[in-house]
Amino acid sequence: MIETHTSASSIPIKNRYTTVLLPIILLLVDYGAILAAEWCSYTLRNWCVPDTQFRLSWLSIHVIIPVVYLFFMQAHKLYTKRVQFWRIISEIFKVNMYAVVSLVVVMYLAQTAAHTSRLFVALMWLLGFIFLVLGRYIVKNILRRIGVLQVPVLIMGAGKTAALMLEHLKDDTGLGYDFIGFLEDNTPEANVAVMMPHLGTFADAEAVIKQTGVQQVLVIAPGLKNEQIEDIVYRLQPLVKRISFIPDMGKLPLATLEAESLIDGHIASFSFRNNLSQWYNRFLKRLFDVVCTVLGIICISPILIGIAVWIYRDSPGPVIFKHRRVGRNGKEFPCYKFRSMCVDADAKLKELLANDPEARTEWEKDFKLKNDPRITKSGAFLRKTSLDELPQLFNVLRGEMSLVGPRPIIRDEVPRYGKFIEDFYMVRPGVTGMWQTSGRSDVSYDERVQMDTWYVRNWNLWFDLVLIWRTIKVVLGKKGAY
């Protein structure tokens, strides 16, 4: 047994009763959020239609409507299950939909629908979702920042996979994990060692659990054999409430994974579905693109005009640059961008690649140049902020692109995708996507390909919303763009 770096200690009292206290706090927060949504909906409705005042009974406001909402929140395990916050948003959306529909059905059965304002119901649907999400986010973020009522977790494994996973998990508001330490038989990764104390090896797991009182174990050791996994489960299951594994499943589309136990639980069956193979999902994605793009263009039209004027004054010539890109089903289309290069950019590129071997090598690697002499002064800023890509919104309206999707590529890049090119051809390329939110130009080409194929195989509408939000944060941070 290797020497432990830090002796294990019991769970601090601020996190010791998390599983009991946190659900109560969240329930009270949700109740307050529902009351706030009711009050705002009620007030807005009567303000918009002052001629006929709408009334709600005390019982409806304080009992019936909140109970219906809280029932569905509990049914979706939003008080006990730990998931990433974007999945919490997805579940709250479903809860809000089910609750509103249920309340409408109850009103019809009780024959009170004629006296209920449709505007109130519509506002409740919208504000119920917003207030529930905001309430959850604010409270869980405050608890995470002060380190109170977090779930103590023991980590088993501190290799490269653990280092990568823990960076994503430690700051997620939805999970609220408190990593008390890790167990590792080999030399741990530096990132993990800095993040938490080293409490021993896998053989010390029982002793650490008994000493600390931790009730959740997360095993991040993809290299474990089946016999080793079985050993961990049968040794630790009597001591803790939950053991979670992150297995080595390669690059399978796990977001659509469905697991089912067969033969009385002795065999597991894994299924993968292709969401975008369903026509209604493709229709939903297209509807989302059109509605959001129209609203977006209306809102940012002054910015578009201002950028166009700046480009023309900085470098007289066409404001919009059309570049041939490969789209859905392998068809090429003119991809619109604000011109960020001089008007004779193609000629300058050929001359540069012919005379500069280092630039030629860099171009052949990623089809990009870190210090591109063709870029204008206005173009440098537009590229850094990704504002040069705003005209692609018109590609979205034309049906050539989507708001979120794989990175649009040129014909010369097709061979680089290899067997994954069919995934690329399945969907429209996106104005933004996974690569833009993961370092953009700092991401290697092979990683971009893997991100593109992962997105296609794991698509859902909520992940599109998450990527749009992440893109805004990355652009504002000016990370990895050139």
Summarize the structure in words.
- Mean pLDDT is 85; it is low at 1-5.
- It is built from 18 helices and 11 strands.
- It has helices spanning 13-16, 18-48, 58-75, 85-109, 118-146, 160-169, 190-195, 205-212, 226-236, 279-314, 345-355, 357-366, 377-385, 392-397, 414-417, 421-425, 445-458, 461-477; strands at 151-156, 177-183, 198-200, 216-219, 242-245, 257-262, 267-272, 320-326, 332-338, 402-404, 430-432.
- The protein is α/β, with parallel strands linked by helices and 482 residues long.
- The relative contact order is 0.08.
- It has a 5-stranded parallel beta sheet. A two-stranded antiparallel sheet has the order 6-7.
- The two termini are 49 Å apart.
- The chain has 3 domains: 18-146, no CATH class; 149-248, Rossmann fold (3-Layer(aba) Sandwich), CATH 3.40.50.720; 279-340 and 375-477, no CATH class.
- A hairpin with a 4-residue loop joins strand 6 and strand 7.
Present the secondary structure layout.
Elements lengths: L12 H4 L1 H31 L9 H18 L9 H25 L8 H29 L4 E6 L3 H10 L7 E7 L6 H6 L2 E3 L4 H8 L3 E4 L6 H11 L5 E4 L11 E6 L4 E6 L6 H36 L5 E7 L5 E7 L6 H11 L1 H10 L10 H9 L6 H6 L4 E3 L9 H4 L3 H5 L4 E3 L12 H14 L2 H17 L5
Parallel strand pairs: 1-2, 1-4, 2-3, 4-5, 10-11
Antiparallel strand pairs: 6-7, 8-9
